[in-house]
Amino acid sequence: MSIIVQKYGGSSVATPEKLRQVAARIVATRKLGHRVVVVVSAMGNTTNELLALARSVSPNPQRRELDMLITTGERISMALLSMAIQDLGDPAVSFTGSQSGIITTDNHTNARIIKITPFRLLQALEQDRIVIVAGFQGVSERREITSLGRGGSDTTAVALAAALGADYAEICSDVDGVYSADPRVVPEARRLDEISYEEMQVLADAGAKVLNAEAVEWARRENIEIRCVATAGDSSVGTPVKAAASVTHPRVVSVTAHPGLFVLEPESPGAPPPADLESTLAAHGAAESEVWILTSGWGALVPKQNVHGLSAFREAIANLGNVRIREDLTVVTVAGRALAAPPGLARAAATSLVGAGIPLRGHMVDAGRAAFLVDADRANEAVRVLHARLIDGEAVR
User: Fold this and answer.
1) What is the pLDDT of residue 132?
2) Mean pLDDT over all residues of the chain?
3) Is the pLDDT of residue 396 over 50?
């Protein structure tokens, strides 16, 4: 009997009514003859509310205690969902990340999954139960509760699909697939029929809220197909993320703007980065920030969602000396294939932005992306300009 892993995000389980709707969808999947493993996020804005509660008692909460606090959100969801499924007459059982055998690194608030030993999950599946797993969490080899960072429930789902030999991982949300841009920014954006792991990785790294970047890397490495579908829609409609795109796949697939960045740059143009910059970033959960070459010299792009304790981070950067921290810039990214090859797609993109009066503060181009640093208040405009030029206009194929 095949195994399917389904992941439901916070908006899909935000209320008791939505939880019951999700329960009905899970039961319907089981009735098709599948064994079902469900990964669930915290309800609605629970994680943000817990973080705000932590900061109400401490401006810079200790990260171990943050993990103890914020991982409770998923445990609430998993228990309630299991109750709702049982009320529909189907057997279900819920497990925390540690009970599921999800072993992680020791990095509190931003841990990575090392391995999964899903003995209890397999036993429950053999007993013909629906298995509900708390996403976003695991346990380190030192037996400490850890969280996987923003979007970590996606990673939980894909890693479990690999460990259990599932047919695929279904990521269920309010959106019925991956689009060529955020439809709220570009109303004419189109749903993609498919997208490759590499293209999805670019979008995830660029801040698109479709999939977690580490989840995509797990899927690519383990060759797990991800299906992005709508929780309330037809499960046959969506966007599969898989190894290779078809020969008719467009060269440019999507444009996205990062939702929030700190941009670090030298106060004195040409000055080298401080010797302890890397360790300072790591101490605040931002060790994997990307370094660009800007007009002012070097520059580090730090996603705000990776930083716990924003005021403490700002203070730590100020203490480095000769580093300016900016919050008025962001990155707009074009994702596709062979973007560094002729014809000059990056040049066409840059020309379009400049022609629209959008100043370029930095740029980076490689085979899978063309990324442009722009003023944050012009980011949505930049997305629309690039979408019109490169996707609607079909400038490069």
Assistant:
1) 98
2) 91
3) no
Do 396 and 345 touch, CB atoms closer than 8 A? yes
Predicted pLDDT at 309: 74
Are 97 and 108 a contacting pair, CB within 8 Å?
no
Q: Provide the b/e sequence for 324-340 (b: ≥16 CB within 10 Å).
A: ebeeebbbbbbbbbebe
β partners of residue 95: 133
Q: What whole-number distance in Å separates Cα of residue 304 and Cα of residue 308? A: 8
Grouping H, G, I as helix, E, B as strand and the rest as coil, residue 347 is: helix
Angle of the 16-31 helix axis to the 72-87 helix axis, nearest 10? 60
Give the pLDDT confidence of 76-122 residue by residue, as tens digits: 999 999 999 999 999 999 999 999 999 999 989 889 999 999 999 99
Domains and CATH numbers, the chain: 3-249 (3.40.1160.10), 256-392 (3.30.2130.10)
Q: Which residues lie closer than 8 Å to 313 by C-beta, 6 or more apart?
A: 262, 284, 286, 307
Tokens (6 digits) for 187: 């109303």
Alpha carbon distances (Å) from 40 to 15, 354, 393? 13, 43, 39
Measured CA to CA in angstroms, residue 177 lies from 116, 157, 211, 256 at distances of 28, 17, 10, 15
Please, what is the Cα angle at 206 between 205 and 212, to 5 degrees? 45
SS3 assignment, position 153? helix
**For 125-180, where are the E strands, in sequence order?**
130-134, 137-140, 145-147, 168-173
* CA separation for the pair 147, 145 (Å, rounded): 7
Mean pLDDT (whole number) for 120-125: 97
Report yes or no: 327 and 301 within 8 Å, Cβ to Cβ: no
Tokens of 233: 């829609």
Closest by CA to 355, choosing from 347, 364, 365, is: 347
Three-point CA angle 183, 228, 79, nearest 5°: 110
Residues 164, 158: Cα–Cα separation, whole Å: 10
Q: How confident is the model at residue 331 (pLDDT cuts 50, 70, 90)?
A: very high
- The string of pLDDT tens digits covering residues 228-245 is 999 997 878 899 999 876
